[in-house]
Design a protein that fits this description.
The protein has 125 residues and is an alpha/beta fold. The chain is built from 5 helices and 4 strands; from the N terminus they run βαααβαβαβ.
């Protein structure tokens, strides 16, 4: 579409940019309104439910022929999408620059908002 695109990752969204965690992300069914299947919290808290929800989501992604997350990120970067890790959250969560995937940038929320203020669409993850 010819748009300049940037995505700002904060708190647990940083796991997507974390080179050791982004291929091991889990889908939490507990108190997650975006879970693959709506479950009462009591059921979502049972042992094994996170694994089950994760496997269910992985199956849906494979069926839809969606690439694994690391490949998806690489595709986005190859298309020029800029990925920003929140510097403040990195400090809070003990994440260092060396922990992040290649070719992502680090910025505080104010710096990203400066970019976002001039754009038509913004995404915070």
């Amino acid at each position: 579409m010819g748009w300049e695109v940037a995505v700002f990752f904060t708190f647990y969204g940083l796991d997507i940019l974390h080179q050791k965690k982004n291929s091991k992300l889990k889908v939490a069914p507990l108190a997650n309104p975006a879970a693959p299947v709506a479950l009462p919290n009591m059921v979502g808290a049972l042992p094994g439910m996170t694994l089950m929800a994760t496997k269910m989501m992985e199956g849906w992604m494979r069926k839809a022929k969606m690439p694994p997350l690391p490949e998806f990120i690489e595709m986005a970067q190859n298309l020029g999408v800029k990925l920003y890790a929140c510097s403040t959250t990195m400090g809070v969560m003990g994440i260092e620059e060396k922990d992040l995937i290649d070719n992502c940038e680090i910025a505080g929320a104010a710096a990203f908002l400066d970019f976002a203020a001039d754009s038509s669409v913004q995404m915070f993850v």
